[in-house]
Structures
1.
Amino acid sequence: MKCVVFGAGTMGCGIAEVLIRSGLEVQLVDRSTQLVEAGLGKLKASLDRATSKGKITAEEAASCLTRLQTDSLEVETADLVIEAVVEDMAVKKELLAPLSVRFPEALLASNTSSLSLTEMAAACHRPERVLGLHFFNPPPVMELLEVVTAEQTDQSTLQKALQLAKDWGKTPIVVKDMPGFASSRLGIILGMEAIRMLESGVASARDIDRAMELGYRHPMGPLKLTDLVGLDVRLAIAEHLTKEIGPQFTPPPLLRRLVRAGRLGKKTGHGFYRWEGNEAHE
Ligand code: NAI
């Protein structure tokens, strides 16, 4: 099975890693070869971490890389397409529509956190093979896979996706195509409220996070999680959910200010915390 992952950012690299670690052949594509190269660097660093933690052997890591193609932006064949490009419906449709014509048998999946799979499928040829495969960050570590069915998704597509989830060692949940699905809809409410609390001086970022970590046994507080996801990504999701569901998702002004200032979280080294590698400092 030949897989193509579009977007060599935070999620695309992680998804490509999950797939090559399960034995699949993967082509990683972005808007330029430089972006793919940068993604390859991140992917290699992640494989190194998995090796040093004893999760895979050095031989396995090396063999994973032989299944990864990063030297071309041209896609020749595809049995499975997973898009992990920016959270923008127009960009996703523009990408998927021509691919659906070129590869009429391929399973077409989006890693969107909130956008409508039904709308994406409607832009595609043979829309019954479109669905959401929503991975969590970082994909090689997180066990959950949210499988989102569009109105058009047929049973055989869903069954194929559930089998893939199993092959990848993930636990799937099947969710209808409603804005924010099951995960983002709850996670964003918590994240936005935590930012509002920080803005109004209820407590420090560290202490708001500790409230959830120690009081509610969340493995990570909502502000640190927002840093990990990317403030720009969470802002885009919150805006979409405000439009689709209601004002309870309205992004706080502080989030907009930080995004405007380029404080996007771990990926830029600064969000609610300052980041040194995997270490967050207040
Ligand atoms: P990112 O900003 O790290 O990466 C996006 C990548 O897509 C960039 O490298 C960009 O150059 C590339 N790109 C843009 N247009 C493209 C095109 N037409 N063809 C190929 N590549 C293109 O974003 P991130 O965080 O990886 O998010 C990607 C998707 O995954 C979004 O839909 C997001 O909502 C979703 N997601 C993000 C999670 C997170 O924790 N960051 C978690 C789960 C889903």
2.
Amino acid sequence: MKDLDSLIDSIIMDRVLKSRTIIEAFENVDRADFVPDMFKESAYVDAPLGIGENQTISQPTTVAFMLEHLAPKKGDKILDIGAGSGWTTAILCHIVGEEGSVLGLERIGSLVELGKFNLARYCHDDRCRIEKAGDKLGVPGEKFDKILVSASADELPEELIDQLNIGGKLVIPVQNSIEVITKTSEDEYQRESIYGFVFVPLVY
Ligand code: SAH
């Protein structure tokens, strides 16, 4: 796999990438800008790659799968937990556009700097930013339309559902499954679970 177009084509052929807006974001936000120099040649291989601190930039197919379930759209206010390289934050930033916003949170200081540096290539204002995660998961008291989590929890963190607007979605790995949560009312939600994934651990 040598170039971005063939990587994207293969994820489309696998019927994982489907939505025009998500495909366009993959085309516009070049993964090569988010992988370390030593892995530049592998930027378009469909695999996770090391970004330092024992963390990884996620596998493209997995990111596509999670984003198709998250269904981000123009104008959304999005929380991206586990910003790492900044790749998913930049993709989401492209999708939400001028009226939306994306907050990426990352717990490891050096990766906060890496993510900010990489994101700055794509986003030049405050709408989309990466900050250091606090002691509590997410941003308690805030509400988002969508929450994406790129590290795996042992069990579903209910506190993230509190941070969703009604109608909002949370996509989060729990152990080796990806959970898709849709908040249907103040105290109810639907849960879909898709098994068969590996992530770095969510630490909190
Ligand atoms: N979206 C990233 C994926 C990075 S891997 C990318 O595209 O590169 C997941 C990241 O989650 C790691 O960098 C890890 O440090 C971070 N992480 C783990 N627990 C976290 C928490 N509680 N809050 C914020 N970030 C967390």
